[in-house]
Design goal:
The protein is of the alpha+beta class. It has a single domain, classed as START domain (Alpha-D-Glucose-1,6-Bisphosphate, Chain A, domain 4, 2-Layer Sandwich), CATH 3.30.530. It is 22% helix and 31% strand. It has 3 helices and 9 strands. A hairpin with a 2-residue loop joins strand 2 and strand 3. The protein is elongated, with a radius of gyration of 20 Å.
């Protein structure tokens, strides 16, 4: 009898990775990604004048990175608020609490951050929500990230909606 490690080594020795190729999204069904996928985001901000970027809607700023089921996936977005960081933090906390799926919601007013955990799968491996606020000349920039652990999935559309819902009251 051979060990699990020896059996695994023998099996893996019989396989070699295929080369990477670019294919149209419509032709990619049933295939495996060769590298992390990244959602397109607005590469350039609209400008109201020299050096003044206009706020983009939360959904426009949404991006994701990672390989579903293989690596962790991090969903990110950001938005701008005319309110001060101290004013937006409680608004976001209330929205997260209203969602009902997050626990251990922690606010650090000094650093302008919120962290929370979501564990709805029963796996004992929570998904992590992090919010960071930064004072800007005309208000606050709010960055929000939701990280899903390897082997778990979260529908991108549902995550985008939830993250933007959390930020909606800050405008």
């Amino acid at each position: 009898m051979i060990s699990v490690e020896q059996a695994r080594a023998r099996i893996l020795a019989a396989f070699a990775p295929l080369g990477a190729e670019r294919v149209a999204l419509a032709d990619a069904a049933g295939r495996v990604l060769a590298a992390d996928a990244h959602a397109a985001t607005a590469a350039c901000a609209s400008f109201a004048g020299p050096g003044k970027a206009q706020a983009q809607p939360c959904a426009t700023n949404f991006s994701s990175s990672g390989v579903p089921m293989v690596s962790q996936i991090t969903y990110r977005t950001w938005d701008l608020s005319r309110k001060a960081p101290a004013a937006v933090l409680p608004v976001i906390v209330r929205a997260i609490e209203a969602d009902g799926d997050f626990v251990d919601i922690r606010t650090d007013r000094a650093s302008g951050t919120i962290s929370a955990m979501q564990e709805v799968t029963g796996s004992g491996r929570p998904q992590i929500l992090k919010v960071t606020t930064r004072k800007q000349a005309t208000g606050t920039r709010i960055d929000i990230a939701f990280t899903v652990q390897p082997g778990q999935v979260a529908p991108e559309g549902a995550v985008r909606k939830a993250l933007c819902d959390f930020l909606r009251g800050t405008r």
